[in-house]
Amino acid sequence: MAQSNYKFHSHNDYAQDFPFWKAYIHGASSIEADIFLKNDELYVTHSEDEIQADFTLENLYLKPLADLAKAGKLRNLQLLIDLKSESKTSLKKLVEVLNSYPELTQSDKISFVISGNRPRPNEYKDYPGFIEFDHQDLSDLEKTDLTKVALISQNFRDYSVWNGLGRITAPELKKVETAIKKAHDAGKPFRFWGAPDTKTAWSRFAEMGVDFINTDKPDEASKYLETLQTRKFELKTPISVYQPKFDYDKSTSPKNIILMIGDGNGLSQISSAVFANRGELTLTQLKNIGLVKTSSFDDLVTDSAAGGTAMATGTKTNNRAIGTDKDGKDLSNLTEILAKKGFLNGIMTTDFVTGATPSSFFAHVVERDDSESILEDLNKSKIDFFMAAGARDFEKIKDNFIQEDFSDFNDLENRTAVFLSENMLADASVRGDQFPKYVKKALQNLERQDKPYFLMIEAAKIDKNGHTNNASGIIEEMLDFDKTIAEVLKVADKNKNTLVVITADHETSGFGIMQGDLEKGKIEGGFLTHDHTGAMIPLFSYGPGSELFNGVYENTAVFHRILKALE
Protein backbone atom coordinates (compact mmCIF):
# COMPACT_ATOMS: atom_id res chain seq x y z
CA MET A 1 0.00 0.00 0.00
CA ALA A 2 1.22 3.48 -0.84
CA GLN A 3 2.15 5.71 2.07
CA SER A 4 -0.15 8.64 2.81
CA ASN A 5 0.89 12.25 3.23
CA TYR A 6 0.91 11.59 6.97
CA LYS A 7 3.28 9.26 8.79
CA PHE A 8 2.14 6.89 11.49
CA HIS A 9 3.99 4.84 14.09
CA SER A 10 2.91 1.26 14.80
CA HIS A 11 3.09 1.23 18.59
CA ASN A 12 3.79 -2.09 20.35
CA ASP A 13 3.91 -3.63 16.92
CA TYR A 14 4.95 -7.06 18.21
CA ALA A 15 1.48 -7.35 19.77
CA GLN A 16 -0.18 -7.35 16.33
CA ASP A 17 -1.56 -10.60 14.93
CA PHE A 18 1.11 -10.30 12.20
CA PRO A 19 4.04 -8.37 13.70
CA PHE A 20 6.02 -6.22 11.24
CA TRP A 21 4.10 -7.31 8.14
CA LYS A 22 0.74 -5.83 9.09
CA ALA A 23 2.28 -2.43 9.75
CA TYR A 24 4.69 -2.58 6.83
CA ILE A 25 2.16 -3.46 4.12
CA HIS A 26 -0.18 -0.76 5.43
CA GLY A 27 2.49 1.88 4.97
CA ALA A 28 3.73 2.52 8.51
CA SER A 29 6.65 4.94 8.51
CA SER A 30 7.79 3.83 11.95
CA ILE A 31 7.49 0.47 13.67
CA GLU A 32 8.13 -0.17 17.35
CA ALA A 33 9.78 -3.26 18.81
CA ASP A 34 10.26 -3.55 22.58
CA ILE A 35 13.29 -5.75 23.28
CA PHE A 36 14.66 -7.51 26.35
CA LEU A 37 18.12 -9.06 26.56
CA LYS A 38 18.18 -12.50 28.18
CA ASN A 39 20.69 -15.35 27.80
CA ASP A 40 22.49 -13.32 25.14
CA GLU A 41 19.35 -13.16 22.97
CA LEU A 42 17.28 -10.09 22.12
CA TYR A 43 13.63 -11.02 22.61
CA VAL A 44 10.76 -8.85 21.45
CA THR A 45 8.61 -8.43 24.53
CA HIS A 46 7.26 -5.82 26.90
CA SER A 47 8.64 -7.56 29.97
CA GLU A 48 10.84 -10.52 30.90
CA ASP A 49 7.94 -12.66 32.11
CA GLU A 50 6.22 -12.37 28.69
CA ILE A 51 9.13 -13.73 26.64
CA GLN A 52 8.22 -16.20 23.87
CA ALA A 53 11.04 -18.38 22.52
CA ASP A 54 10.54 -17.58 18.83
CA PHE A 55 9.79 -13.88 19.32
CA THR A 56 13.29 -12.56 18.73
CA LEU A 57 14.30 -9.28 17.13
CA GLU A 58 15.93 -11.15 14.29
CA ASN A 59 12.98 -13.46 13.58
CA LEU A 60 10.28 -10.81 13.68
CA TYR A 61 12.04 -7.78 12.22
CA LEU A 62 15.64 -8.04 11.04
CA LYS A 63 15.34 -11.10 8.82
CA PRO A 64 12.20 -9.82 7.00
CA LEU A 65 13.86 -6.43 6.54
CA ALA A 66 17.02 -8.04 5.22
CA ASP A 67 15.03 -10.12 2.74
CA LEU A 68 13.29 -6.99 1.47
CA ALA A 69 16.61 -5.17 1.17
CA LYS A 70 18.21 -8.01 -0.78
CA ALA A 71 15.24 -8.08 -3.13
CA GLY A 72 15.44 -4.32 -3.65
CA LYS A 73 11.95 -3.85 -2.21
CA LEU A 74 12.77 -2.11 1.08
CA ARG A 75 11.05 1.26 1.44
CA ASN A 76 11.89 4.06 3.87
CA LEU A 77 11.28 2.93 7.43
CA GLN A 78 12.16 3.79 10.99
CA LEU A 79 12.54 0.84 13.37
CA LEU A 80 12.04 2.23 16.87
CA ILE A 81 13.73 -0.20 19.28
CA ASP A 82 12.46 0.30 22.81
CA LEU A 83 14.99 -1.13 25.29
CA LYS A 84 13.26 -2.78 28.23
CA SER A 85 16.38 -4.35 29.73
CA GLU A 86 19.49 -2.53 30.99
CA SER A 87 20.71 0.07 28.52
CA LYS A 88 24.43 -0.51 27.95
CA THR A 89 24.48 -4.29 27.72
CA SER A 90 21.33 -4.34 25.59
CA LEU A 91 22.73 -1.73 23.22
CA LYS A 92 26.05 -3.53 22.98
CA LYS A 93 24.25 -6.73 21.95
CA LEU A 94 22.01 -4.84 19.54
CA VAL A 95 25.00 -3.28 17.77
CA GLU A 96 26.61 -6.71 17.53
CA VAL A 97 23.48 -8.21 15.97
CA LEU A 98 22.95 -5.31 13.56
CA ASN A 99 26.55 -5.54 12.35
CA SER A 100 25.70 -8.95 10.93
CA TYR A 101 23.12 -7.25 8.66
CA PRO A 102 25.21 -4.92 6.48
CA GLU A 103 22.39 -4.81 3.92
CA LEU A 104 20.45 -2.91 6.60
CA THR A 105 23.11 -0.90 8.42
CA GLN A 106 24.51 0.39 5.13
CA SER A 107 21.10 1.13 3.62
CA ASP A 108 19.67 4.64 3.37
CA LYS A 109 16.18 3.16 3.52
CA ILE A 110 16.08 2.21 7.21
CA SER A 111 17.02 3.93 10.44
CA PHE A 112 17.43 2.23 13.81
CA VAL A 113 16.25 4.50 16.60
CA ILE A 114 16.75 3.64 20.26
CA SER A 115 14.00 4.44 22.75
CA GLY A 116 13.16 3.26 26.27
CA ASN A 117 16.24 2.69 28.45
CA ARG A 118 18.58 4.95 26.52
CA PRO A 119 22.08 6.10 27.47
CA ARG A 120 22.60 9.70 28.59
CA PRO A 121 22.42 12.27 25.77
CA ASN A 122 26.14 13.03 26.00
CA GLU A 123 26.80 9.35 25.22
CA TYR A 124 24.75 9.27 22.01
CA LYS A 125 27.87 10.06 20.01
CA ASP A 126 29.62 6.92 21.26
CA TYR A 127 27.50 4.62 19.12
CA PRO A 128 27.85 3.67 15.43
CA GLY A 129 26.43 5.90 12.73
CA PHE A 130 23.53 3.55 12.04
CA ILE A 131 22.27 4.03 15.61
CA GLU A 132 20.08 7.08 16.40
CA PHE A 133 18.02 8.00 19.42
CA ASP A 134 14.51 8.93 20.48
CA HIS A 135 15.04 11.95 22.72
CA GLN A 136 12.37 12.42 25.39
CA ASP A 137 13.21 15.71 27.09
CA LEU A 138 12.04 19.10 25.83
CA SER A 139 13.81 21.06 28.55
CA ASP A 140 17.39 20.43 27.41
CA LEU A 141 17.18 20.88 23.65
CA GLU A 142 19.33 24.00 23.54
CA LYS A 143 22.22 22.43 25.47
CA THR A 144 22.07 18.96 23.92
CA ASP A 145 23.91 17.80 20.82
CA LEU A 146 21.00 16.64 18.68
CA THR A 147 23.11 15.25 15.85
CA LYS A 148 22.22 11.67 16.73
CA VAL A 149 18.60 12.42 17.64
CA ALA A 150 16.14 11.02 15.10
CA LEU A 151 12.96 12.29 16.76
CA ILE A 152 11.56 13.69 19.99
CA SER A 153 8.81 11.83 21.85
CA GLN A 154 6.61 12.83 24.77
CA ASN A 155 3.93 11.22 26.91
CA PHE A 156 0.63 12.75 25.81
CA ARG A 157 -0.80 12.35 29.31
CA ASP A 158 1.69 14.89 30.59
CA TYR A 159 -0.17 17.47 28.53
CA SER A 160 -3.79 16.41 28.29
CA VAL A 161 -6.47 13.98 29.50
CA TRP A 162 -8.30 14.13 26.15
CA ASN A 163 -9.70 10.73 25.15
CA GLY A 164 -9.73 11.35 21.40
CA LEU A 165 -13.46 12.03 21.13
CA GLY A 166 -14.90 15.47 20.57
CA ARG A 167 -12.52 18.36 21.14
CA ILE A 168 -9.45 18.82 23.28
CA THR A 169 -9.88 21.79 25.65
CA ALA A 170 -8.25 25.07 24.66
CA PRO A 171 -5.72 25.21 27.55
CA GLU A 172 -4.60 21.63 26.92
CA LEU A 173 -4.47 22.23 23.17
CA LYS A 174 -2.11 25.14 23.75
CA LYS A 175 0.22 22.95 25.83
CA VAL A 176 0.19 20.21 23.21
CA GLU A 177 0.91 22.63 20.36
CA THR A 178 3.71 24.25 22.37
CA ALA A 179 5.41 20.86 22.84
CA ILE A 180 5.21 20.11 19.11
CA LYS A 181 6.57 23.54 18.26
CA LYS A 182 9.59 23.10 20.58
CA ALA A 183 10.57 19.93 18.76
CA HIS A 184 10.08 21.48 15.35
CA ASP A 185 12.00 24.59 16.34
CA ALA A 186 14.88 22.24 17.19
CA GLY A 187 14.58 20.77 13.70
CA LYS A 188 13.34 17.36 14.84
CA PRO A 189 10.21 15.31 14.07
CA PHE A 190 7.79 14.71 16.94
CA ARG A 191 5.75 11.84 18.35
CA PHE A 192 3.36 11.39 21.31
CA TRP A 193 3.05 8.07 23.07
CA GLY A 194 0.16 7.31 25.39
CA ALA A 195 -2.02 9.31 22.98
CA PRO A 196 -5.68 8.62 22.17
CA ASP A 197 -6.04 6.24 19.23
CA THR A 198 -9.21 7.30 17.40
CA LYS A 199 -10.02 8.67 13.97
CA THR A 200 -10.69 12.07 15.52
CA ALA A 201 -7.33 11.98 17.27
CA TRP A 202 -5.45 10.92 14.12
CA SER A 203 -6.99 13.83 12.25
CA ARG A 204 -6.24 16.33 15.02
CA PHE A 205 -2.64 15.18 15.36
CA ALA A 206 -2.17 15.36 11.60
CA GLU A 207 -3.49 18.93 11.61
CA MET A 208 -1.24 19.86 14.56
CA GLY A 209 1.81 18.61 12.72
CA VAL A 210 2.64 15.50 14.74
CA ASP A 211 5.19 13.79 12.51
CA PHE A 212 4.62 10.20 13.64
CA ILE A 213 1.02 9.54 14.69
CA ASN A 214 0.96 6.82 17.34
CA THR A 215 -1.45 3.94 16.76
CA ASP A 216 -2.13 0.35 17.75
CA LYS A 217 -4.37 0.03 14.67
CA PRO A 218 -2.05 0.37 11.66
CA ASP A 219 -4.58 -1.01 9.18
CA GLU A 220 -7.32 1.43 10.21
CA ALA A 221 -4.97 4.38 10.61
CA SER A 222 -3.49 3.75 7.18
CA LYS A 223 -6.86 3.76 5.43
CA TYR A 224 -7.96 6.82 7.34
CA LEU A 225 -4.84 8.93 6.85
CA GLU A 226 -4.41 7.91 3.21
CA THR A 227 -7.77 9.48 2.35
CA LEU A 228 -7.66 12.37 4.81
CA GLN A 229 -6.85 15.05 2.25
CA THR A 230 -9.69 14.01 -0.07
CA ARG A 231 -12.09 14.16 2.87
CA LYS A 232 -11.18 17.72 3.81
CA PHE A 233 -12.55 20.96 2.40
CA GLU A 234 -12.10 24.63 3.15
CA LEU A 235 -14.23 27.36 1.58
CA LYS A 236 -12.07 30.46 1.45
CA THR A 237 -14.78 32.82 0.18
CA PRO A 238 -18.40 32.15 1.19
CA ILE A 239 -21.10 32.29 -1.48
CA SER A 240 -23.91 34.83 -1.17
CA VAL A 241 -27.21 33.72 0.35
CA TYR A 242 -30.54 34.84 -1.12
CA GLN A 243 -33.32 35.67 1.34
CA PRO A 244 -36.70 34.56 -0.06
CA LYS A 245 -39.57 37.02 0.36
CA PHE A 246 -42.36 34.54 1.23
CA ASP A 247 -45.01 36.89 -0.17
CA TYR A 248 -46.74 34.39 -2.48
CA ASP A 249 -50.45 33.69 -2.04
CA LYS A 250 -50.83 30.43 -0.11
CA SER A 251 -54.50 30.12 -1.05
CA THR A 252 -53.89 29.84 -4.79
CA SER A 253 -52.64 27.00 -6.96
CA PRO A 254 -49.24 27.42 -8.62
CA LYS A 255 -49.00 28.20 -12.31
CA ASN A 256 -45.50 26.75 -12.77
CA ILE A 257 -43.62 23.82 -11.25
CA ILE A 258 -39.84 23.62 -10.79
CA LEU A 259 -38.53 20.34 -9.43
CA MET A 260 -34.87 20.45 -8.41
CA ILE A 261 -33.06 17.17 -7.75
CA GLY A 262 -29.62 16.98 -6.19
CA ASP A 263 -28.54 13.48 -7.19
CA GLY A 264 -27.18 11.66 -4.14
CA ASN A 265 -27.81 14.71 -1.96
CA GLY A 266 -28.53 13.68 1.63
CA LEU A 267 -28.76 15.70 4.82
CA SER A 268 -25.03 15.47 5.53
CA GLN A 269 -24.17 16.68 2.05
CA ILE A 270 -26.39 19.71 2.63
CA SER A 271 -25.07 20.21 6.17
CA SER A 272 -21.46 20.14 5.01
CA ALA A 273 -22.14 22.96 2.55
CA VAL A 274 -24.01 24.90 5.25
CA PHE A 275 -21.06 24.68 7.63
CA ALA A 276 -18.50 25.45 4.91
CA ASN A 277 -20.53 28.57 4.05
CA ARG A 278 -20.35 29.75 7.67
CA GLY A 279 -23.75 28.45 8.70
CA GLU A 280 -26.18 29.45 5.96
CA LEU A 281 -27.35 28.54 2.49
CA THR A 282 -30.16 29.86 0.35
CA LEU A 283 -31.72 26.40 0.67
CA THR A 284 -31.84 26.59 4.46
CA GLN A 285 -33.89 29.79 4.38
CA LEU A 286 -36.91 27.72 3.32
CA LYS A 287 -39.53 26.80 5.92
CA ASN A 288 -41.50 23.92 4.44
CA ILE A 289 -39.46 20.76 4.93
CA GLY A 290 -40.18 17.06 4.54
CA LEU A 291 -38.34 13.77 4.74
CA VAL A 292 -38.56 11.34 1.84
CA LYS A 293 -38.21 7.54 2.01
CA THR A 294 -36.40 6.36 -1.09
CA SER A 295 -36.51 2.56 -1.37
CA SER A 296 -37.35 1.04 -4.76
CA PHE A 297 -39.89 -1.72 -5.40
CA ASP A 298 -37.30 -4.49 -5.36
CA ASP A 299 -34.64 -3.13 -2.99
CA LEU A 300 -34.33 -1.18 0.23
CA VAL A 301 -31.64 0.94 -1.44
CA THR A 302 -32.74 2.62 -4.66
CA ASP A 303 -30.72 3.59 -7.68
CA SER A 304 -31.26 6.83 -9.61
CA ALA A 305 -33.48 5.16 -12.19
CA ALA A 306 -36.03 3.83 -9.71
CA GLY A 307 -35.71 6.92 -7.53
CA GLY A 308 -36.32 9.27 -10.44
CA THR A 309 -39.17 7.14 -11.75
CA ALA A 310 -40.94 7.21 -8.38
CA MET A 311 -40.96 11.02 -8.40
CA ALA A 312 -41.79 11.29 -12.10
CA THR A 313 -44.64 8.73 -12.15
CA GLY A 314 -45.81 8.21 -8.56
CA THR A 315 -45.09 4.47 -8.75
CA LYS A 316 -42.35 2.34 -7.20
CA THR A 317 -40.37 0.28 -9.67
CA ASN A 318 -37.35 -2.00 -9.86
CA ASN A 319 -33.83 -0.67 -9.74
CA ARG A 320 -32.49 0.09 -13.23
CA ALA A 321 -36.00 0.62 -14.64
CA ILE A 322 -36.95 4.02 -16.07
CA GLY A 323 -40.59 5.00 -16.55
CA THR A 324 -41.85 1.42 -16.34
CA ASP A 325 -43.50 -0.45 -13.49
CA LYS A 326 -42.30 -3.63 -11.77
CA ASP A 327 -43.64 -5.69 -14.67
CA GLY A 328 -42.05 -3.53 -17.37
CA LYS A 329 -45.25 -1.70 -18.39
CA ASP A 330 -45.06 1.99 -19.30
CA LEU A 331 -46.04 4.54 -16.68
CA SER A 332 -47.39 8.03 -17.35
CA ASN A 333 -44.96 10.68 -16.15
CA LEU A 334 -45.28 14.31 -15.10
CA THR A 335 -44.24 15.78 -18.44
CA GLU A 336 -46.83 13.70 -20.31
CA ILE A 337 -49.56 14.60 -17.84
CA LEU A 338 -48.67 18.29 -17.68
CA ALA A 339 -48.39 18.61 -21.47
CA LYS A 340 -52.09 17.77 -21.63
CA LYS A 341 -52.68 20.72 -19.29
CA GLY A 342 -50.87 23.07 -21.66
CA PHE A 343 -47.50 23.11 -19.89
CA LEU A 344 -44.14 23.62 -21.52
CA ASN A 345 -41.72 20.97 -20.28
CA GLY A 346 -37.98 21.43 -19.82
CA ILE A 347 -35.06 19.49 -18.41
CA MET A 348 -31.69 20.86 -17.30
CA THR A 349 -28.89 18.68 -15.99
CA THR A 350 -25.13 18.58 -15.54
CA ASP A 351 -25.32 14.99 -16.80
CA PHE A 352 -26.14 13.58 -20.25
CA VAL A 353 -29.81 13.82 -21.15
CA THR A 354 -29.80 9.99 -21.16
CA GLY A 355 -28.77 9.91 -17.51
CA ALA A 356 -31.10 7.96 -15.22
CA THR A 357 -32.65 10.94 -13.45
CA PRO A 358 -33.53 13.14 -16.46
CA SER A 359 -34.62 10.08 -18.46
CA SER A 360 -37.17 9.23 -15.78
CA PHE A 361 -39.21 12.25 -16.87
CA PHE A 362 -39.65 11.21 -20.50
CA ALA A 363 -38.47 7.64 -21.18
CA HIS A 364 -39.94 4.14 -20.75
CA VAL A 365 -37.24 1.44 -20.64
CA VAL A 366 -36.55 -1.46 -18.31
CA GLU A 367 -32.76 -0.94 -18.45
CA ARG A 368 -31.20 2.42 -17.66
CA ASP A 369 -28.18 1.75 -19.89
CA ASP A 370 -30.36 1.37 -22.99
CA SER A 371 -29.37 4.82 -24.32
CA GLU A 372 -30.60 4.08 -27.83
CA SER A 373 -34.16 3.47 -26.63
CA ILE A 374 -33.99 6.43 -24.26
CA LEU A 375 -33.14 8.76 -27.16
CA GLU A 376 -35.95 7.25 -29.22
CA ASP A 377 -38.33 8.01 -26.33
CA LEU A 378 -36.94 11.55 -26.13
CA ASN A 379 -37.97 12.02 -29.77
CA LYS A 380 -41.52 10.92 -28.93
CA SER A 381 -41.67 12.72 -25.58
CA LYS A 382 -43.43 15.88 -24.45
CA ILE A 383 -40.12 17.60 -23.71
CA ASP A 384 -40.03 21.06 -25.31
CA PHE A 385 -36.41 21.83 -24.51
CA PHE A 386 -33.50 20.44 -22.62
CA MET A 387 -30.03 21.50 -21.63
CA ALA A 388 -27.51 18.77 -20.97
CA ALA A 389 -23.92 17.76 -21.54
CA GLY A 390 -22.93 15.57 -24.46
CA ALA A 391 -23.58 16.93 -27.95
CA ARG A 392 -22.86 13.44 -29.30
CA ASP A 393 -26.51 12.56 -28.66
CA PHE A 394 -27.89 15.10 -31.14
CA GLU A 395 -27.45 12.90 -34.21
CA LYS A 396 -30.20 10.59 -32.87
CA ILE A 397 -32.72 13.38 -32.21
CA LYS A 398 -31.97 15.97 -34.92
CA ASP A 399 -35.22 15.24 -36.79
CA ASN A 400 -37.27 16.24 -33.74
CA PHE A 401 -35.19 18.94 -32.03
CA ILE A 402 -33.27 21.92 -33.29
CA GLN A 403 -29.86 22.46 -31.74
CA GLU A 404 -28.98 25.91 -30.46
CA ASP A 405 -26.04 27.42 -28.70
CA PHE A 406 -26.86 28.71 -25.28
CA SER A 407 -26.32 32.30 -26.42
CA ASP A 408 -29.02 31.84 -29.12
CA PHE A 409 -31.55 30.19 -26.83
CA ASN A 410 -34.19 32.93 -26.68
CA ASP A 411 -37.49 31.37 -27.69
CA LEU A 412 -39.39 28.09 -27.55
CA GLU A 413 -41.10 28.10 -30.92
CA ASN A 414 -39.43 24.80 -31.75
CA ARG A 415 -38.37 21.82 -29.67
CA THR A 416 -34.88 22.79 -28.67
CA ALA A 417 -31.76 20.96 -27.57
CA VAL A 418 -29.03 23.01 -25.95
CA PHE A 419 -25.85 21.01 -25.43
CA LEU A 420 -23.67 22.62 -22.87
CA SER A 421 -19.92 23.01 -23.25
CA GLU A 422 -17.84 19.92 -22.67
CA ASN A 423 -16.50 21.16 -19.33
CA MET A 424 -20.04 20.91 -17.99
CA LEU A 425 -19.09 17.27 -17.55
CA ALA A 426 -16.37 18.41 -15.17
CA ASP A 427 -16.88 19.25 -11.51
CA ALA A 428 -17.96 22.67 -10.28
CA SER A 429 -14.35 23.57 -9.46
CA VAL A 430 -13.66 23.48 -13.22
CA ARG A 431 -16.93 24.67 -14.77
CA GLY A 432 -17.41 27.61 -12.38
CA ASP A 433 -20.84 29.30 -12.27
CA GLN A 434 -21.99 28.07 -15.69
CA PHE A 435 -24.94 26.04 -14.49
CA PRO A 436 -26.60 28.71 -12.29
CA LYS A 437 -26.18 31.19 -15.16
CA TYR A 438 -27.72 28.77 -17.66
CA VAL A 439 -30.66 28.11 -15.36
CA LYS A 440 -31.15 31.84 -14.92
CA LYS A 441 -31.31 32.39 -18.69
CA ALA A 442 -33.59 29.41 -19.25
CA LEU A 443 -36.01 30.78 -16.68
CA GLN A 444 -35.95 34.21 -18.32
CA ASN A 445 -36.92 32.47 -21.55
CA LEU A 446 -39.70 30.49 -19.91
CA GLU A 447 -41.08 33.59 -18.20
CA ARG A 448 -41.55 35.24 -21.60
CA GLN A 449 -43.90 32.46 -22.73
CA ASP A 450 -47.67 32.66 -22.30
CA LYS A 451 -47.87 29.07 -21.06
CA PRO A 452 -47.26 27.50 -17.67
CA TYR A 453 -44.08 25.42 -17.43
CA PHE A 454 -42.59 22.42 -15.70
CA LEU A 455 -38.83 22.43 -15.31
CA MET A 456 -36.75 19.60 -13.86
CA ILE A 457 -33.26 20.72 -12.80
CA GLU A 458 -30.71 18.10 -11.79
CA ALA A 459 -27.40 18.69 -10.01
CA ALA A 460 -25.94 15.35 -11.06
CA LYS A 461 -22.42 15.44 -9.71
CA ILE A 462 -23.08 15.44 -5.98
CA ASP A 463 -23.72 11.75 -6.58
CA LYS A 464 -20.57 11.29 -8.68
CA ASN A 465 -18.38 12.71 -5.94
CA GLY A 466 -20.14 10.59 -3.36
CA HIS A 467 -19.27 7.48 -5.35
CA THR A 468 -15.60 8.50 -5.38
CA ASN A 469 -15.68 9.58 -1.71
CA ASN A 470 -14.52 13.09 -2.60
CA ALA A 471 -15.67 15.46 0.14
CA SER A 472 -14.43 18.56 -1.66
CA GLY A 473 -16.36 17.61 -4.78
CA ILE A 474 -19.55 16.95 -2.81
CA ILE A 475 -19.42 20.33 -1.07
CA GLU A 476 -18.46 22.27 -4.20
CA GLU A 477 -21.33 20.66 -6.13
CA MET A 478 -23.77 21.39 -3.29
CA LEU A 479 -22.65 25.03 -3.20
CA ASP A 480 -23.16 25.22 -6.97
CA PHE A 481 -26.62 23.69 -6.49
CA ASP A 482 -27.39 26.35 -3.88
CA LYS A 483 -26.41 29.12 -6.30
CA THR A 484 -28.82 27.55 -8.78
CA ILE A 485 -31.53 27.40 -6.11
CA ALA A 486 -31.04 31.13 -5.50
CA GLU A 487 -31.70 31.88 -9.19
CA VAL A 488 -34.86 29.78 -9.10
CA LEU A 489 -36.20 31.42 -5.94
CA LYS A 490 -35.59 34.89 -7.36
CA VAL A 491 -37.88 34.04 -10.27
CA ALA A 492 -40.45 32.47 -7.94
CA ASP A 493 -40.46 35.64 -5.85
CA LYS A 494 -40.89 37.77 -8.95
CA ASN A 495 -43.86 35.91 -10.44
CA LYS A 496 -45.29 34.67 -7.10
CA ASN A 497 -46.97 31.74 -8.84
CA THR A 498 -44.27 29.05 -9.01
CA LEU A 499 -44.03 26.00 -6.78
CA VAL A 500 -40.41 25.04 -6.18
CA VAL A 501 -39.66 21.53 -4.87
CA ILE A 502 -36.03 20.75 -3.96
CA THR A 503 -35.01 17.22 -3.03
CA ALA A 504 -32.81 14.23 -4.02
CA ASP A 505 -33.34 10.81 -5.53
CA HIS A 506 -31.29 9.09 -2.79
CA GLU A 507 -28.24 9.56 -0.58
CA THR A 508 -24.84 8.44 -1.84
CA SER A 509 -21.82 7.24 0.18
CA GLY A 510 -23.16 7.42 3.75
CA PHE A 511 -21.41 10.77 4.04
CA GLY A 512 -20.86 12.08 7.55
CA ILE A 513 -19.34 15.21 9.05
CA MET A 514 -16.54 14.21 11.39
CA GLN A 515 -15.23 17.62 12.39
CA GLY A 516 -14.55 21.09 11.10
CA ASP A 517 -14.30 24.80 11.83
CA LEU A 518 -17.40 26.91 11.24
CA GLU A 519 -15.52 30.22 11.37
CA LYS A 520 -12.97 29.11 8.76
CA GLY A 521 -15.38 27.11 6.60
CA LYS A 522 -13.45 23.88 7.14
CA ILE A 523 -15.04 20.44 6.93
CA GLU A 524 -13.73 16.93 7.34
CA GLY A 525 -16.04 14.21 6.09
CA GLY A 526 -16.19 10.47 6.40
CA PHE A 527 -17.79 7.77 4.25
CA LEU A 528 -19.66 4.57 4.95
CA THR A 529 -19.61 3.25 1.39
CA HIS A 530 -18.95 4.07 -2.27
CA ASP A 531 -22.56 3.17 -3.08
CA HIS A 532 -26.03 4.53 -2.42
CA THR A 533 -27.64 4.20 1.01
CA GLY A 534 -31.21 3.81 2.19
CA ALA A 535 -31.23 6.97 4.33
CA MET A 536 -34.21 9.28 4.06
CA ILE A 537 -33.47 12.48 2.16
CA PRO A 538 -34.75 16.00 2.91
CA LEU A 539 -37.20 17.91 0.74
CA PHE A 540 -37.59 21.69 0.79
CA SER A 541 -40.48 23.49 -0.90
CA TYR A 542 -41.44 27.09 -1.63
CA GLY A 543 -44.36 28.89 -3.21
CA PRO A 544 -48.08 28.12 -3.57
CA GLY A 545 -48.77 24.53 -2.50
CA SER A 546 -45.48 24.14 -0.63
CA GLU A 547 -47.22 23.26 2.63
CA LEU A 548 -48.31 19.99 1.01
CA PHE A 549 -44.72 18.73 1.18
CA ASN A 550 -44.23 18.82 4.94
CA GLY A 551 -43.96 15.54 6.85
CA VAL A 552 -42.47 12.11 6.17
CA TYR A 553 -43.56 10.21 3.09
CA GLU A 554 -42.53 7.91 0.22
CA ASN A 555 -40.75 9.28 -2.84
CA THR A 556 -43.86 8.47 -4.91
CA ALA A 557 -45.73 11.16 -2.94
CA VAL A 558 -43.66 13.87 -4.66
CA PHE A 559 -45.51 13.13 -7.90
CA HIS A 560 -48.93 13.00 -6.27
CA ARG A 561 -48.44 16.16 -4.21
CA ILE A 562 -47.26 18.15 -7.23
CA LEU A 563 -50.48 17.21 -9.03
CA LYS A 564 -52.54 17.95 -5.93
CA ALA A 565 -50.97 21.39 -5.66
CA LEU A 566 -52.16 22.10 -9.22
CA GLU A 567 -55.78 21.19 -8.49
Named CATH topology of the largest domain: Alkaline Phosphatase, subunit A
- The CATH C-level class name of the largest domain: Alpha Beta
Main sheet specs: 10 strands, mixed
Structural category is alpha/beta
**What's the rounded overall pLDDT mean?**
95
Number of helices: 17
> What Rg do the Cα atoms give?
31 Å
So, the CATH homologous superfamily of the largest domain? Alkaline Phosphatase, subunit A
Integer count of domains: 2
* End-to-end distance: 60 Å
Query: Based on DSSP secondary structure assignment, what is the total number of beta strands?
Result: 24
Helix content: 25-40%
For the record, the CATH architecture of the largest domain stands as: 3-Layer(aba) Sandwich
Order of neighbouring strands in the sheet with most strands: 15-16-14-13-17-11-18-23-12-24
Q: Proportion of β residues?
A: 15-25%
Low-confidence stretches: none
Q: What shape does the CA trace take?
A: elongated
Cofactor: Mg(2+); Zn(2+)
Active site: 304
InterPro entries: AIM6_PI-PLC-like_dom (IPR039559), Alkaline_phosphatase (IPR001952), Alkaline_phosphatase_AS (IPR018299), Alkaline_phosphatase_core_sf (IPR017850), PLC-like_Pdiesterase_TIM-brl (IPR017946)
Binding site for Mg(2+): 263, 357, 458
